[in-house]
Design goal:
2 copies of one chain form a homodimer. Chain A is α/β, with parallel strands linked by helices. Chain A folds into 2 domains: about 1-120 and about 295-343, Isopropylmalate Dehydrogenase, CATH 3.40.718.10; about 130-285, 3-Layer(aba) Sandwich (Isopropylmalate Dehydrogenase), CATH 3.40.718. Helix content of chain A is about 50%, strand content about 20%. Chain A contains 12 helices and 11 strands. Chain A has helices spanning about 15-30, 40-50, 70-75, 80-90, 105-115, 160-175, 195-210, 220-225, 235-260, 265-285, 310-325, 330-340, and strands spanning about 5, 30-35, 55-60, 100, 125-135, 140-150, 180-185, 215-220, 230, 290-295, 300-305. In chain A, strand 5 (about 125-135) and strand 6 form a beta hairpin. The first copy, chain A, is globular and about 60 Å long. The interface between A and B is large, with 47 and 46 residues.
Amino acid sequence: MVTIAVDAMGGDNAPDAVVRGAAEASLSTDSEVLLVGDEKRITELLGQVRHDPERIRVHGASQAIPMDCKPREALEAMPDSSLVVATRLVAAEGHADALVSAGNTGAVILACATAFKCIPGVRRTALAAVIPTERRRGKKQDPFTLLLDAGATLRVSADDLVGFAMMGAAYASIVSKNDKPRIALLSNGTEPTKGTPEIVAAHQTLVGVEGIDFIGNVEGIDIPRGKADVIVCDGFTGNITLKMLEGVSQTVTNLARYAYRRKVSWKLAMWLLSSGIKRIKEITDWQQYGGAPILGFDRLCIKAHGRSGPRAIRNAIKVAERCVKQDLAGRIETHVAAAQRHQ
Amino acid sequence: MVTIAVDAMGGDNAPDAVVRGAAEASLSTDSEVLLVGDEKRITELLGQVRHDPERIRVHGASQAIPMDCKPREALEAMPDSSLVVATRLVAAEGHADALVSAGNTGAVILACATAFKCIPGVRRTALAAVIPTERRRGKKQDPFTLLLDAGATLRVSADDLVGFAMMGAAYASIVSKNDKPRIALLSNGTEPTKGTPEIVAAHQTLVGVEGIDFIGNVEGIDIPRGKADVIVCDGFTGNITLKMLEGVSQTVTNLARYAYRRKVSWKLAMWLLSSGIKRIKEITDWQQYGGAPILGFDRLCIKAHGRSGPRAIRNAIKVAERCVKQDLAGRIETHVAAAQRHQ
């Protein structure tokens, strides 16, 4: 049986939302969930919700890393925090197979880097983010594109970009049930000569790699269109891209709210549109995707959104389970080795 | 009197839209417009529209550079193209003071770089783009943020970023009638330590420069919010950012169209919202802004959008006129010198 360690104290709504999400997962998956954190509080919360006691265990950790911490300082000051204890349990063979945390992103990445090892052949790990797009893809018909790196590495070499592409391909094939995801490099033009020297060199390598569907460069305009299933870039560009999408979505929400309040006719219009808006929200809802994987370590970590509710946590646990069962680490190793033959 | 040279053959709708825009400008500004291109065709078109013949002259040029050209090859092959002739007229003292072109962006930048000189102290010129935001600013209450570099220089040094900031400040102060525009660096975090080494160093310099309102780093999420009036980044990031905004806006339009066709109730809703949508279109309409300035040359060039209609061309001519009258080049020189005392 697969065991997923869950950092019960990480996230804006922890531990309540995390415990509830784990309880839901215990009823709908084959995995065992290991909830790490304040034993008394977790047990109390579990007493209030339906769950399968055969599939949930609690592991005590006396400290909790706050969301607005400085990662390095926090990890050093709190060796018995739920995050540090959970990563240790995952790192030590036999205790747990993967980690789910909705805690501070920097702290989660650093805790993984401290406790886990890189997969042979992986030079640099990456945080992959999930972006809703216009297009549906894979057997699951999901509308998401995977973008990596989303902020772990500001500057990258050509080999790093190639590694990100191969890791993203391995992950997308499992999670979106998409055998041959379309992989692209994000650049300032679609021609192979466009972009920084690193992008141009990565392009040359990826063209020659067999077994993947490399579609070349995509531009910013292709991101919301969903032209690629996996978009590869450096962490600086990934960060700006993701945050701008968040800003645009907030602006659209603000405009809709304004329209709703401003005029009776606009209010009526928004009401008439509500079924459509609900549908857009459903297909673009990040909570159904669970979270952002940190790719490249021998153990998988799914970084759930800080604002995750129970559903996002449950889905993150499910995604982690699927990746363990389908040997994501092994697939990444094979993929990366295939690319290295061309470098 | 200020003379603005206009590349009559550049743009998707040239020469018709360009000649019409110039005709409108001749009736509403104090400048003289010098239309450069196919004399016969321009004269014919002018005969069909209201214009002030005292304020429009035509200068013949036998060739026209196509929109989908390769810039370097096209410029070399067409020494008598409207673009090349127009830049030459602007470069030679006394013929014209500034250039407006809606032609191929790469060709326009290259033609300027060939014919014009850099302002003393300017190391690198930049293409500045205009982004609609939620916030209104300046005496004109316009909702636009200036983003530079928008794609001229993929990789920049710290000094380049500082130069872009100072040039953007000078331009925004004239065009948005905003005495002290808020200047920011685009980065992956608001703290002064966040970003590439170039961004961190540029931040340190800009903090010490007097006479500007440097508000520090902004993140991607702050772009649509309009937190800054001038946003500074390298050309790669600027290109991705702009094109992604274009993509998102297309996606929103597609969704609205889909809603309109899908259900009678949604159609009614879109009709009820139409006054609001019109208002959003009005305040975010790039045509009112005229175009993107190329900053740093001793002569100004306004690169109008390829799809420009007459109104965009007229506004680009007006913006160019205002910049010449208010000595943009002199202001940039002063601004850049102020920053260099701190580098």
